């Protein structure tokens, strides 16, 4: 079983978890949300929610992985059996595996765009280009399903190669080289932004504390970002936790992951917006910021082609470090459950995700409108797949918190936490009550509506059902002393 593997170095789990957390969202979504929602006020709410919600669930998910020493699905099956609870808790593993599979399918397509822009930058094709030229070029990329499929294939194949080589030769060796290199590249881009951009305007944009600008929606976005940025509820953290040495502190590691992930987002925000403001451009949102606004900024600055190419290599590296964590939960399950070799398991997972990814490819062109997805759900196939992940991940995270908080005994939690009784009681209070309530609140307030109240109603049923079922599933009373 995969549980026989343990990271060779104690710090590898930190690199793996940070690699899973640091991705495309850190490089544009977090900085943009911060600037648009009160700057420092948004960061304050984000930090408080990270502490009260994100870190407790992160600790819980790592704990479940390390306690079971198996893939999320098989691990939850094992834990449910050994703790005398219902096998229905295995749902946690299935939700995580489903989320990882669906996210990988469209994440690979979006990340593949960075291959296109790395090539354009390094060849100097965008030097001196104006806004219209770059915007038209991006639209042309989206309108070319063949080209997008090529990039999608290259990206997912590179991710599969790393995971297929195994825990030590593939994932561990890759992360030990990749993550430090990404941090160095990020600092180089920041230094370039300081010299050639407007770092003062970027700092003002991101860190001005104005609580009046933070609406209820802003609070919800800050709370939601704190949950999703740590890769919770998608099986990756649980799968990586299964390889974590027993003598590594869960608490210190979880705090370190949260701090490094946030720091990367902050530095990326400073670097990106220094370039944007330095070029006198408007801040964008989503793909437009990274694939239209930033290339335009690089096109107008000295050595912009070279630094732009390096930046998109950073984007690719961050995306690959996330994608390999998405492959692992399903691949580990296939190895354990069906006694496959690791290359076989990875091949099945990746080929299926690649095929699913074709729905995302055509959602930007051939199937941009008029499909069954538009008729039934009012959105494209890509948007529907993304919607499913926005349901599965928080429900999975909520169940993780409930199982760790109510099913695991004090003695085994204390053994895993290796900390004082005071911290244990505080963590258990957060993971039993605060974290589930916060996740449910954010989930029900932010989930998009489809056909009136179809999706919110489904979400409410899932959340209420999770709370109710958690008590029914805990057949055997747990000792709390």
Could you explain how this protein is built, in words?
With 481 residues, the chain is mostly helical. The protein has a single domain, classed as Up-down Bundle (Amino acid/polyamine transporter I). 77% of the residues lie in helices and 0% in strands. The protein has 20 helices and no strands. It has helices spanning 12-21, 24-36, 40-68, 72-82, 91-122, 131-142, 145-164, 167-196, 199-207, 216-228, 236-241, 250-278, 287-299, 304-338, 342-363, 372-377, 381-406, 410-417, 421-446, 454-473. Helix 3 (40-68) packs across helix 4 (72-82), helix 5 crosses helix 15 (342-363) and helix 9 (199-207) crosses helix 12. The radius of gyration is 22 Å and the shape is globular. It starts with 11 loop residues before the first helix and ends in an 8-residue tail after the last helix. 52% of the residues are buried. Mean pLDDT is 87; it is low at 477-481. InterPro entries: Na/ntran_symport (IPR000175), SNS_sf (IPR037272), YocR/YhdH-like (IPR047218). Keywords: Membrane, Symport, Transmembrane, Transmembrane helix, Transport. It is found in: Membrane. Its main location: membrane. This is Transporter.
């Amino acid at each position: 079983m995969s549980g026989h593997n343990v990271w060779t170095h104690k710090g590898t789990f930190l690199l793996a978890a940070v690699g899973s957390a640091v991705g495309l969202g850190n490089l544009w979504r977090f900085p943009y949300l911060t600037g648009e929602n009160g700057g420092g006020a948004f960061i304050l709410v984000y930090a408080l929610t990270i502490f009260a919600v994100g870190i407790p669930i992160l600790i819980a998910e790592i704990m479940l992985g390390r306690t079971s020493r198996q893939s999320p699905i098989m691990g939850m099956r094992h834990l449910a059996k050994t703790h005398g609870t219902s096998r229905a808790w295995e749902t946690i593993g299935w939700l995580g595996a489903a989320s990882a599979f669906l996210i990988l399918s469209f994440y690979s397509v979006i990340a593949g765009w960075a291959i296109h822009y790395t090539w354009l930058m390094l060849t100097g094709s965008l030097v001196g280009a104006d806004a219209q030229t770059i915007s038209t070029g991006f639209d042309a990329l989206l309108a070319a399903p063949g080209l997008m499929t090529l990039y999608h294939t290259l990206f997912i194949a590179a991710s599969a190669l790393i995971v297929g080589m195994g825990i030590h030769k593939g994932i561990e060796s890759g992360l030990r080289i990749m993550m430090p290199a990404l941090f160095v590249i990020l600092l180089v881009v920041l230094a370039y932004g300081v010299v050639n951009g407007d770092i003062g305007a970027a700092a003002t944009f991101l860190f001005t504390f104005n609580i009046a600008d933070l609406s209820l929606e802003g609070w919800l976005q800050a709370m939601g970002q704190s949950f999703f940025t740590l890769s919770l509820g998608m099986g990756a953290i649980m799968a990586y936790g299964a390889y974590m040495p027993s003598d590594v502190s869960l608490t210190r590691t979880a705090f370190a992951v949260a701090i490094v992930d946030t720091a990367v987002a902050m530095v990326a925000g400073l670097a990106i917006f220094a370039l944007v403001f330095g070029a006198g451009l408007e801040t964008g949102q989503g793909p437009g910021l990274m694939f239209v606004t930033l290339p335009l900024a690089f096109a107008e600055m000295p050595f912009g082609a070279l630094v732009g190419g390096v930046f998109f290599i950073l984007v690719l590296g961050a995306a690959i470090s996330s994608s390999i964590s998405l492959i692992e939960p399903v691949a580990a399950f296939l190895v354990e459950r069906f006694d496959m070799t690791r290359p076989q398991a990875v091949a099945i997972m990746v080929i299926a995700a690649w095929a699913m990814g074709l729905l995302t490819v055509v959602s930007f062109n051939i199937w941009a409108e008029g499909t069954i997805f538009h008729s039934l759900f009012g959105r494209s196939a890509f948007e529907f797949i993304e919607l499913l992940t926005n349901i599965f991940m928080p429900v999975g995270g909520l169940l993780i918190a409930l199982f760790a908080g109510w099913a695991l005994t004090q003695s085994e939690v204390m053994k895993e936490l290796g900390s004082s009784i005071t911290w244990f009681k505080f963590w258990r209070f957060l993971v039993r009550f605060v974290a589930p309530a916060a996740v449910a609140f954010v989930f029900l307030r932010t989930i998009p509506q489809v056909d009136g109240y179809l999706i919110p109603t489904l979400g409410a049923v899932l959340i209420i059902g999770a709370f109710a079922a958690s008590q029914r599933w805990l057949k055997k009373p747990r000792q709390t002393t």
